Amino acid sequence: MKNFIEAQIKSSIEAKEKILKDGQYIEQIQSIVEIVIQAYKLGKKVLLCGNGGSAADSQHIAAEFVSKFRLDRKALPAIALTVNTSVLTSIGNDYSYKNIFERQVEAFGKEGDVLIGISTSGNSENITLAFKKAKEIGITTIGFLGKDGGENKNYCDFPLIVPSEDTPRVQEAHIMIGHIVCDIVEKELFGEKVDE
Predict the structure, then answer these.
(1) 2-190: which CATH number, 3.40.50.10490, 3.20.20.150, 1.10.10.1800, 3.55.40.10?
(2) Residue 67 marked in a binding site
(3) Residue 51 marked in a binding site
């Protein structure tokens, strides 16, 4: 058991080291931060969606924006499209599960907002449809993806693809990236500027 635990920890570290050592990922995270900051400066909001563990990540990241990450500051508008069971089950029943996020993007999204779709496989049809609807409205789309980015990468403006085939490692990297984004956005808007 000890060896298995150590192997899992090493695997998690390796996935994050790949991100750390490849300047492309750092630049992508910087771009995402800049997009979110610009949206907030313009009085816009962030929408987030995902399935399963990625739904939980959507809620987690939204909570960091609305409540706080580190600083006591003004709340930032962020909505996880994964939390209203009446809306989710109504859309799933009246339309289809694939439409659960698309309909909410149509209802809540406004031009200039940001949509972060999270999918470890990159092949979540409901994320693809949400991205398509967002583009119709004029919402900037960001994908936190895994594996090879799947279909989702073709429908978002900024696909960030974690370099791993292992779902748990992808999820761990997604929440790490989400935390980095929240941390820098908060500091840039309300605290000390982050050094280049």
Answers:
(1) 3.40.50.10490
(2) no
(3) yes
Confirm or deny that 121 is annotated as ligand binding: yes
The answer to whether 52 is annotated as binding is yes
Parse the chain into domains and list their residue ranges: 2-190
Q: Please give the full DSSP string across 89-132, using - where no structure is assigned.
A: HHHHHHT-GGGHHHHHHHHH--TT-EEEEEESSS--HHHHHHHH
The whole-model pTM stands at 0.96
Q: Is 3 one of the annotated binding-site residues?
A: no
Tell me: is residue 179 an annotated ligand-binding position.
Answer: yes
Residue-wise pLDDT tens for the chain (196 aa)? Answer: 999 999 999 999 999 999 999 999 999 999 999 999 999 999 999 999 999 999 999 999 999 999 999 999 999 999 999 999 999 999 999 999 999 999 999 999 999 999 999 999 999 999 999 999 999 999 999 999 999 999 999 999 999 999 999 999 999 999 999 999 999 999 999 987 777 6
